[in-house]
What we know:
This protein is α+β, with helices and mostly antiparallel strands. Helices cover 24% and strands 29% of the residues. It has helices at 23-27, 45-58, 71-78, 151-162, 205-216, 262-278; strands at residues 3-6, 9-12, 30-38, 41-42, 86-93, 111-118, 130-136, 167-172, 175-179, 183-188, 191-194, 221-223, 236-241, 245-252, 255-256.
Amino acid sequence: MTTVYLNGQFLRLEQARISPLDRGFNYGDGVYEVVRAYRGRPFRLEAHFARLADSLAKIRLGVYLSPLTDVPARLVEENGLGGGDALIYLQVTRGAAPRQHAFPPPDTKATIFAYAWELTPNPAWSAPGLTVILAPDERWARCDIKVVSLVANVLAHQRAAERGAQEALLVRDGVVLEGTLSNFFAVFEGEVRTASLSNYILPGVTRALVLELCREHGIPCRETPIFHHELAQAEELFVSSTSFGVAPIHQLDGRTLPEARPVTERLQRLLGETIARECA
C-alpha cells in the first residue's frame, strides 16, 4: 500500500494526516465499509455503497457519496493490485472538532479515508474449513450499523485466536447471531437457515447474495433464529463475508463436523460463478 485517499485527494500513505481531535479517534463516531475486488474489479460495489449510506443515515451524518464511487477502483489501480484479489476499506467519521458528546457544528467537515491492500485467500477457508468457537455477544444494541467502534468484536475474535480458531460466533439469549466479522448459516434437513435481520445483525452484502442464490437455484432457505442447542443437529455450518466468501465450518468448540457439505459446496460454486460473471 503506497497510495491512500483522504478528503478528496489521493496521497502517499506517509503524507496522510488526520487530526487527533477527529471524532472517529475520540469517540469511534464513524462508520466504514469493506469492498472486495476480484482481478482488479470491485464486487457488488453498489450494494456496499447502499449499506454505507444506510449506516451514515442511522448515525445522522449527511455525506454525499457519489464522488466516492470511483475511489475503490482507483486505489486498486494506484497500488498495482489489478492482477489479483484486494480489499478496499472506506471510513467516514463526523470530522475533527473540540471534544464534546453532542454533534459538532453543522459546518464541520466529515473525514473520509480509504485504502486498499492485497488479499491472499487462505486455502484452509475452503478445505478443511474454519475452526470457530462460541462466545457471548457483548456488543451494543445497534449491530446493524457498521460502526468503527469494534472493541467487543476485537475481544471476541482475540478469544478465538487464543484458542486456535479463525472466528467466534456470537450468542445472545441462546441464539447464535453472527460472527465477529461474518454472517452465520446452518443447514437442517437441506434447508439453509440464518438469523433474521434485526438491530443485532449486520446486513451482510455476501449474506444477501447467499440468500439470493438459494432462492434463484431452488435451495430451501429461511431467515429464523438458530438456537445454541440446535447446532448439534445441523448437517452443515458455514459463514459468509466479504473476505471469506462462503466458508464452511470444520470445527466448532472442539467438535469436528462431518466432511460432507453438499449445500455449502454448491453455494461456493454458485458464488464463484457470480463473481466470474460480474467481474469479467
